[in-house]
Protein backbone atom coordinates (compact mmCIF):
# COMPACT_ATOMS: atom_id res chain seq x y z
CA UNK A 1 0.00 0.00 0.00
CA UNK A 2 2.85 2.38 0.82
CA UNK A 3 4.59 1.60 -2.47
CA UNK A 4 1.37 2.27 -4.39
CA UNK A 5 0.90 5.55 -2.49
CA UNK A 6 4.49 6.57 -3.34
CA UNK A 7 3.96 5.89 -7.05
CA UNK A 8 0.67 7.82 -7.00
CA UNK A 9 2.38 10.72 -5.21
CA UNK A 10 5.10 10.82 -7.90
CA UNK A 11 2.47 11.05 -10.63
CA UNK A 12 0.70 13.87 -8.78
CA UNK A 13 3.97 15.81 -8.42
CA UNK A 14 4.68 15.57 -12.17
CA UNK A 15 1.13 16.66 -13.03
CA UNK A 16 1.11 19.75 -10.77
CA UNK A 17 2.45 23.19 -11.85
CA UNK A 18 6.19 23.68 -11.21
CA UNK A 19 7.07 25.32 -7.86
CA UNK A 20 3.41 25.61 -6.85
CA UNK A 21 2.39 25.25 -3.20
CA UNK A 22 0.43 22.09 -4.00
CA UNK A 23 3.49 20.54 -5.62
CA UNK A 24 5.62 21.43 -2.57
CA UNK A 25 3.04 19.78 -0.29
CA UNK A 26 3.05 16.69 -2.48
CA UNK A 27 6.85 16.50 -2.29
CA UNK A 28 6.70 16.68 1.52
CA UNK A 29 4.11 13.88 1.50
CA UNK A 30 6.35 11.80 -0.76
CA UNK A 31 9.25 12.21 1.67
CA UNK A 32 7.07 11.13 4.60
CA UNK A 33 5.82 8.07 2.69
CA UNK A 34 9.36 7.02 1.79
CA UNK A 35 10.51 7.42 5.39
CA UNK A 36 7.56 5.32 6.58
CA UNK A 37 8.40 2.60 4.07
CA UNK A 38 12.03 2.60 5.20
CA UNK A 39 10.92 2.33 8.83
CA UNK A 40 8.70 -0.67 8.13
CA UNK A 41 11.15 -2.57 5.94
CA UNK A 42 12.02 -5.87 7.53
CA UNK A 43 15.69 -6.20 8.53
CA UNK A 44 17.79 -8.94 7.01
CA UNK A 45 16.32 -12.41 7.49
CA UNK A 46 19.68 -13.72 8.67
CA UNK A 47 19.34 -11.94 12.02
CA UNK A 48 20.29 -14.26 14.89
CA UNK A 49 17.51 -16.14 16.69
CA UNK A 50 19.02 -15.33 20.10
CA UNK A 51 20.35 -11.94 21.27
CA UNK A 52 21.78 -11.26 24.74
CA UNK A 53 21.35 -7.68 26.02
CA UNK A 54 21.65 -6.51 29.67
CA UNK A 55 20.97 -10.05 30.96
CA UNK A 56 17.91 -10.32 28.69
CA UNK A 57 17.80 -13.48 26.59
CA UNK A 58 15.94 -12.32 23.49
CA UNK A 59 14.45 -14.84 21.09
CA UNK A 60 13.34 -13.84 17.61
CA UNK A 61 9.57 -14.25 17.37
CA UNK A 62 8.00 -16.39 14.67
CA UNK A 63 4.40 -15.21 15.18
CA UNK A 64 3.34 -12.76 12.48
CA UNK A 65 -0.34 -12.17 13.28
CA UNK A 66 -0.03 -10.98 16.91
CA UNK A 67 -0.01 -7.21 17.44
CA UNK A 68 2.20 -6.15 20.36
CA UNK A 69 3.57 -2.90 21.76
CA UNK A 70 7.32 -2.33 21.79
CA UNK A 71 8.58 -1.83 25.36
CA UNK A 72 11.34 0.48 24.13
CA UNK A 73 9.71 2.91 21.69
CA UNK A 74 6.05 2.40 22.80
CA UNK A 75 4.83 1.91 19.22
CA UNK A 76 3.06 -1.06 17.65
CA UNK A 77 5.06 -4.05 16.49
CA UNK A 78 3.67 -5.10 13.11
CA UNK A 79 4.55 -8.80 13.09
CA UNK A 80 3.78 -9.24 9.39
CA UNK A 81 6.45 -6.78 8.26
CA UNK A 82 8.77 -6.25 11.22
CA UNK A 83 11.22 -8.49 13.06
CA UNK A 84 10.78 -8.49 16.84
CA UNK A 85 12.20 -10.19 19.91
CA UNK A 86 10.87 -11.31 23.31
CA UNK A 87 12.95 -11.87 26.45
CA UNK A 88 12.26 -15.35 27.80
CA UNK A 89 12.91 -14.18 31.36
CA UNK A 90 10.79 -11.04 31.79
CA UNK A 91 8.80 -11.00 28.51
CA UNK A 92 10.23 -7.62 27.46
CA UNK A 93 9.24 -7.15 23.79
CA UNK A 94 10.80 -4.85 21.24
CA UNK A 95 11.54 -4.30 17.57
CA UNK A 96 14.79 -5.65 16.21
CA UNK A 97 15.87 -2.05 15.49
CA UNK A 98 15.23 -1.13 19.16
CA UNK A 99 17.44 -3.87 20.65
CA UNK A 100 20.63 -1.73 20.68
CA UNK A 101 18.70 0.99 22.57
CA UNK A 102 17.40 -1.22 25.42
CA UNK A 103 18.36 0.37 28.76
CA UNK A 104 16.32 -1.73 31.23
CA UNK A 105 18.15 -4.79 32.65
CA UNK A 106 16.20 -8.03 32.76
CA UNK A 107 14.12 -8.09 35.94
CA UNK A 108 14.20 -11.91 35.97
CA UNK A 109 17.92 -11.60 36.78
CA UNK A 110 17.06 -9.09 39.53
CA UNK A 111 14.52 -11.54 40.99
CA UNK A 112 17.13 -14.32 40.93
CA UNK A 113 19.83 -12.21 42.58
CA UNK A 114 17.78 -10.11 45.00
CA UNK A 115 14.26 -11.54 45.52
CA UNK A 116 13.00 -8.92 47.96
CA UNK A 117 10.42 -6.16 47.99
CA UNK A 118 10.68 -2.43 48.55
CA UNK A 119 8.75 -2.18 51.85
CA UNK A 120 8.49 1.61 52.23
CA UNK A 121 5.29 3.12 50.87
CA UNK A 122 6.11 5.16 47.75
CA UNK A 123 9.57 6.32 48.97
CA UNK A 124 9.74 9.56 47.00
CA UNK A 125 12.97 11.57 46.90
CA UNK A 126 11.90 14.13 44.28
CA UNK A 127 12.67 14.90 40.65
CA UNK A 128 15.73 16.95 41.57
CA UNK A 129 17.43 13.81 42.93
CA UNK A 130 16.98 12.31 39.44
CA UNK A 131 18.34 15.46 37.71
CA UNK A 132 14.85 15.83 36.16
CA UNK A 133 15.46 12.70 34.09
CA UNK A 134 13.61 9.40 33.74
CA UNK A 135 14.82 6.86 36.30
CA UNK A 136 15.21 4.25 33.56
CA UNK A 137 16.11 5.75 30.18
CA UNK A 138 17.36 9.14 31.49
CA UNK A 139 15.15 11.14 29.10
CA UNK A 140 14.38 14.71 30.35
CA UNK A 141 11.04 14.89 32.22
CA UNK A 142 9.04 17.38 34.32
CA UNK A 143 5.70 17.55 36.15
CA UNK A 144 4.59 20.21 33.65
CA UNK A 145 4.94 17.70 30.82
CA UNK A 146 7.74 19.66 29.10
CA UNK A 147 9.59 18.12 27.33
CA UNK A 148 8.01 14.88 28.58
CA UNK A 149 5.50 14.07 31.32
CA UNK A 150 6.94 12.75 34.61
CA UNK A 151 4.96 9.77 35.91
CA UNK A 152 5.56 8.47 39.41
CA UNK A 153 5.79 4.75 40.14
CA UNK A 154 3.94 3.96 43.36
CA UNK A 155 6.24 1.00 44.05
CA UNK A 156 9.67 2.65 43.73
CA UNK A 157 8.63 6.27 44.30
CA UNK A 158 10.76 7.24 41.28
CA UNK A 159 9.64 9.21 38.23
CA UNK A 160 9.62 7.87 34.69
CA UNK A 161 8.85 9.12 31.19
CA UNK A 162 5.72 7.95 29.34
CA UNK A 163 7.76 5.39 27.37
CA UNK A 164 8.93 3.67 30.57
CA UNK A 165 5.68 4.16 32.53
CA UNK A 166 2.44 3.19 30.77
CA UNK A 167 0.19 3.73 33.82
CA UNK A 168 -0.04 -0.03 34.42
CA UNK A 169 -1.83 -0.98 37.65
CA UNK A 170 -0.46 -3.38 40.27
CA UNK A 171 -0.97 -4.17 43.96
CA UNK A 172 1.92 -2.60 45.91
CA UNK A 173 3.32 -4.97 48.60
CA UNK A 174 4.27 -2.17 51.05
CA UNK A 175 0.69 -0.86 51.09
CA UNK A 176 -0.70 -4.38 51.58
CA UNK A 177 1.65 -5.15 54.49
CA UNK A 178 1.42 -1.83 56.35
CA UNK A 179 -2.17 -0.79 55.54
CA UNK A 180 -3.80 -4.02 54.32
CA UNK A 181 -4.50 -2.02 51.16
CA UNK A 182 -4.84 -4.06 47.97
CA UNK A 183 -6.00 -1.21 45.73
CA UNK A 184 -3.95 -1.38 42.46
CA UNK A 185 -1.69 1.65 41.95
CA UNK A 186 0.12 3.03 38.90
CA UNK A 187 3.58 1.55 38.46
CA UNK A 188 6.33 1.69 35.85
CA UNK A 189 6.81 -1.08 33.28
CA UNK A 190 9.90 -2.32 35.09
CA UNK A 191 8.10 -2.45 38.46
CA UNK A 192 5.06 -4.17 36.95
CA UNK A 193 7.23 -6.95 35.47
CA UNK A 194 9.21 -7.31 38.71
CA UNK A 195 6.05 -7.56 40.84
CA UNK A 196 4.53 -10.08 38.42
CA UNK A 197 7.62 -12.31 38.67
CA UNK A 198 7.79 -11.96 42.47
CA UNK A 199 4.09 -12.50 43.25
CA UNK A 200 4.36 -16.24 44.03
CA UNK A 201 7.63 -16.07 45.98
CA UNK A 202 7.25 -16.52 49.78
CA UNK A 203 9.69 -13.78 50.81
CA UNK A 204 7.56 -11.68 53.21
CA UNK A 205 8.06 -12.51 56.90
CA UNK A 206 4.86 -10.86 58.02
CA UNK A 207 5.21 -11.55 61.75
CA UNK A 208 8.57 -9.72 61.74
CA UNK A 209 7.51 -6.84 59.48
CA UNK A 210 4.08 -6.01 60.94
CA UNK A 211 3.02 -8.35 63.80
CA UNK A 212 0.15 -6.03 64.83
CA UNK A 213 -1.64 -6.85 61.59
CA UNK A 214 -2.60 -10.25 63.06
CA UNK A 215 -4.73 -8.44 65.67
CA UNK A 216 -6.89 -6.78 63.03
CA UNK A 217 -7.19 -9.19 60.10
CA UNK A 218 -9.24 -12.29 60.83
CA UNK A 219 -7.90 -14.23 57.84
CA UNK A 220 -4.34 -13.80 59.08
CA UNK A 221 -5.25 -15.16 62.51
CA UNK A 222 -6.72 -18.22 60.85
CA UNK A 223 -3.59 -18.71 58.70
CA UNK A 224 -1.31 -18.36 61.73
User: At the fourth CATH level, what is the homologous superfamily of the largest domain?
Assistant: Zinc/RING finger domain, C3HC4 (zinc finger)
CATH architecture of the largest domain: 2-Layer Sandwich
Q: What spatial order of strands do you see in the largest sheet?
A: 1-2-5-6
Strand content: 5-15%
Core attributes:
224 residues; DEFI8 protein; 4-stranded antiparallel sheet; two-stranded antiparallel sheet; 7 helices; Herpes Virus-1; single chain; 10 strands; Wheat Germ Agglutinin (Isolectin 2), domain 1; 30% helix; elongated; alpha+beta
Care to describe what's here?
The protein is an alpha+beta fold and 224 residues long. The chain has three domains: 1-41, no CATH class; 50-101, Wheat Germ Agglutinin (Isolectin 2), domain 1; 115-220, 2-Layer Sandwich (Herpes Virus-1), CATH 3.30.40. Helix content is 30%, strand content 14%. The protein is built from seven helices and ten strands. The chain has helices at residues 2-15, 21-40, 107-113, 173-179, 189-198, 206-209, 218-223, and strands at residues 50-53, 56-60, 67-69, 76-78, 84-87, 93-95, 151-152, 159-160, 168-170, 185-187. A hairpin with a 6-residue loop joins strand 7 (151-152) and strand 8 (159-160). The longest helix has 20 residues, at 21-40. The termini are far apart. The relative contact order is 0.09. Positively regulates lysosome peripheral distribution and ruffled border formation in osteoclasts. Involved in bone resorption. InterPro entries: C1-like_sf (IPR046349), DEF8 (IPR051366), DEF8_C1 (IPR047983), PKC_DAG/PE (IPR002219), RH_dom (IPR025258). Residues 55-106 form the Phorbol-ester/DAG-type domain. Keywords: Metal-binding, Repeat, Zinc, Zinc-finger. This is DEFI8 protein.
